[in-house]
Give the backbone structure.
Amino acid sequence: MSLDATIGSLKAEISAAVAAAADEGAIEAVRVAALGKKGSVSALLASLGSMAPDERKTAGATINALKTEVTALIEAKASVLKRAALDARLAAERVDVTLPVRAPATAEGRIHPISQVIDEITAIFSDMGFSIAEGPDIETDWYNFTALNFPEGHPAREMHDTFFMAPSPDGVKRVLRTHTSPVQVRTMLKSNEKPEAAYLTPAIDPPIRVVMPGRTYRHDSDQTHTPMFHQVEGLVIDKQSHIGQLRWVLEEFLKAFFEVEAVTLRFRPSFFPFTEPSMEVDVQCDRSGAEVKIGEGTDWLEILGCGMVHPNVLRNCGLDPDVYQGFAWGMGIDRLAMLKYGMNDLRAFFDADKRWLDHYGFRPLDLPTLFGGLSS
Ligand code: DAH
């Protein structure tokens, strides 16, 4: 075949392929087949090398003209296809700017009343100069009972409806802590750590003023009890701490927490192994309406347990009861939350029902502070 004939048929062939290319991928394939390293037009150009100089001159001009023509043809089609692809994408990905904006997490999310109440308690006691401490949920029998002056086999151990852990290989008996009181023990032990161990955990020297919120566990479940619940413990140790201070701290706390001008407390004798004397505290309230009102009325509501720390507990924690004395108290956070925010079924706290949380939850950025208002 003459060169002209070859060029003619190649041009026809490439033109047909260009016309048939329906998308960017197809036109790229046509380009590679014609102009790529092993393309048909490139092969023709390579054949110039084996031609006689005269022949090469005319053939070179014709083949290069073909190359220019084919290149233009392919580029034109490629740009048409590129434009078409962009138009198709823009049509498919169009954003409907009239759609409502989705609310951000800070507007939708809610803080659980338990978390809110823990933050409120922390804010109040921090303002009174207390530190916050925490301990483990899985506690040894020694911290949960023995150190707190519960003798081995004492009925009070059963009164706690304890969840006992399976015996562990190290022989240490463990329980799910039945109260936050073991954190008292941990705090006092830390306070008189030997100097060589002090670098491990910074020691808190007496006077100790600490509150300890956390989860607690008992085998119990009804409208006002759940197997997991929350307590907050308070502990003050000094050389001259006394019940008058205990009473003041509790009154100040309850006034701040319930956001009322005054509260009236009633102390009743009670028994806890770790305090002597031990007392239960009732707060005056009005229960005539749908909601319990604290600080008014003629009713009494039991709200916490407290007492002077038993000398045995001080001794177990390495403090000399002839030098130090202190007071402690413990109360249910869930119960405080129910009273303050008018919820009547504790089990709902742990149902993870979004409608309940929307109703009783708190906005994430409304942090409770004494100056900004605890629950406003
Ligand atoms: N730990 C007690 C309980 O769970 C509550 C309690 C009572 C804590 C008296 C105290 C206290 O610190 O002094 O029933």
